[in-house]
Amino acid sequence: MSKQELNLHRQVQLSCDAPAGWMTERKIMSTLTKYVLLQLPGWILTALLLLGLRGWLGLPLWVAGGVFVFWVAKDFILYPFVRRSYESNTKTGTEKLVGSRGVAKEWLGPHGYVQVHGELWKAKAEPSDQPISPHSPIRVQAARGMTLIVTADKNHASGPIFSS
What is the domain range of residue 141? Predict the structure, then answer.
């Protein structure tokens, strides 16, 4: 496989979004491309507004052009600060909790509630034939929707765990 084919292969992600389970190819968009495409309507609106002001107030072309360049430059200067919010691989919600430690708030046999990072979450103990007692340390192994899949954390069973 050539280097170009390998790069293309890395950029293509298989997706099952098509009806009846058909596999479709979806090219992954870079974060910068996504950011520029989302800024484009604002740039177009700014250009139209400046052209309208030029015709209505007689705004010199060099002033309108300077304001437009400043507006676009502002977006590129702000990009490093807002880049993370445009990344598609950012973990959110329950994904962030995988690997975290917490405390069982009630018997997990197998369902119940746990406290992780100071928040109360619905949880299911895995394996389900080994219930977890209240106040026992747990570790989040996975998440299914808004339910955390947890196991008893035997490595830290000796002392209290403070989840904040």
Answer: 94-156
50 and 67 belong to one structural domain:
yes
Phi/psi of residue 163, nearest 5 degrees: -95, 115
φ/ψ of residue 114, rounded to 5: -130, 160
Q: Which of 32, 63, 86 is the last residue of a domain?
A: 86
Q: Residue 124 maps to which CATH number?
A: 2.40.50.140
- Whether the Cβ atoms of residue 64 and residue 57 lie closer than 8 Å to each other: no
Nearest alpha carbon to residue 160 among 134, 136, 144: 136
Residue 59 has pLDDT above 70, yes or no: yes
Sign of the CA dihedral with 142 first, then 147, 148, and 149 last: negative
Digit-coded pLDDT (tens) for 69-124? 999 999 999 999 998 888 777 666 778 889 899 999 999 888 999 999 999 999 99
Instruction: Dig out the tokens for 141 from the structure.
Output: 């192994």
104 and 127, same domain (yes or no): yes
Q: Tell me if 161 is assigned to some domain.
A: no
Half-sphere exposure (CA, 13 Å, Cβ side) for 110?
A: 12
Contacts of residue 122, defined as CB under 8 A and 6 or more positions apart, other chains included, come to: 111, 112, 113, 146, 147, 148
